[in-house]
Amino acid sequence: MSPDRQPPEKMMFQLSLRRRGISEQRVLRAMDAIPREAFVEPADRDNAWRDTALGIACGQTISQPFVVAYMTERLELRDDHRVLEIGTGSGYQAAILSRLSRQVVTIERFRTLADRARARLKQQHCDNVEVLLGDGFDVPADAGQFDRIMVTAAMEQIPDALTHRLEPDGLLIAPVGPHNGRQTLVLVRQTAGGPVRKELVDVRFVPALPGIAREL
Ligand code: SAH
Q1: Which domain holds residue 122?
Q2: Distance between Cα 35 and ligand 1 center (Å)
Q3: How many angstroms does the Cα of residue 1 sit away from the middle of ligand 1?
Q4: Less Cβ around it within 10 Å: N or C end of the chain?
Q5: Is residue 175 in contact with ligand 1, taking CB distance under 6 Å?
Q6: Would 177 be classed as within a structural domain?
Q7: Residues 164-173: pLDDT tens digits?
Q8: 7 C-alpha to center of ligand 1: Å?
Q9: What CATH number should be reported for the domain holding residue 179?
């Protein structure tokens, strides 16, 4: 679709991302290419292009688009990167990551969410994404090492086991903080001298919980 034929709400979506400081063209293009309405609940389709988080199944949320774009931009993704996402949710963030990297492995603890996200990602031809039902606090060893890790559920602290999964010079971004208190996005770079940590902005995410969910 040419820019002048885009629905107005989609043009506003891009404009508001730019206004709020997202400047990397690759990220803006990925946000433009992936239809967020395909990842929200059917009743929320009309709200899909608004810059807000929305409820999805299993009491979870699809993040606010600005936060998706911001976290993606901070990961400095390259086409040859292998990426791990913890907290598949709707699959939207994984779809964005898939446009900017070689391979995405995404882990979700609710079977319903993992199954639905897998179907949506297939429908959107995101063929380089693998959705695993599992626990992001216990990433299977055979999943290997990653150039980039994005956590999209709030962790009280970043487990060492997770930073150990980063390749040299790898980056990890995660919301860190108590479930009902102040959470801050933290960026960790794996350097020769060990992990270097930087605090970015305050955010609000659903909590990361241990283990596979017993309910569907
Ligand atoms: N990235 C998602 C939104 C994430 S909401 C999207 O684009 O829609 C956070 C998700 O993390 C929820 O679906 C929740 O079930 C999941 N989650 C929480 N703890 C987890 C854990 N230990 N392992 C895997 N997934 C987890």
Answers
A1: 8-203
A2: 20
A3: 32
A4: N
A5: no
A6: yes
A7: 999 999 999 9
A8: 30
A9: 3.40.50.150
> Is there an atom of ligand 1 within 6 Å of 132 CB?
no
Q: How far apart are CA 7 and CA 185, in angstroms?
A: 32
Q: Is the CB of 72 under 6 A from ligand 1?
A: no
> Tens digit of pLDDT per residue, the chain (216 long)?
455 567 778 888 899 999 999 999 999 999 999 999 999 999 999 999 999 999 999 999 999 999 999 999 999 999 999 999 999 999 999 999 999 999 999 999 999 999 999 999 999 999 999 999 999 999 999 999 999 999 999 999 999 999 999 999 999 999 999 988 999 999 999 999 999 999 999 999 999 999 999 987
Ligand 1 center from residue 74 Cα (angstroms): 19
- Phi, psi for 37 (deg, rounded to 5): -65, -20
In a domain, 2, yes or no: no
Q: Which of 75, 104, 66, 73 lies closest to 87 in space, CA to CA?
A: 104
**Three-state SS letters, 149-189:** EEECCEECCCCHHHHCCEEEEEEEEEEECCCCCCEEEEEEE
Q: How many domains does the chain have?
A: 1
Place of tokens 């179907």: 119
Read off the pTM.
0.96
| Active site residue ranges | 63
61 lines ligand 1 (CB under 6 A): yes
The reply to whether ligand 1 has any atom less than 6 angstroms from the CB of 135 is yes
Atom of ligand 1 nearest to the CA of 208: 19
Does residue 3 lie in a domain region?
no
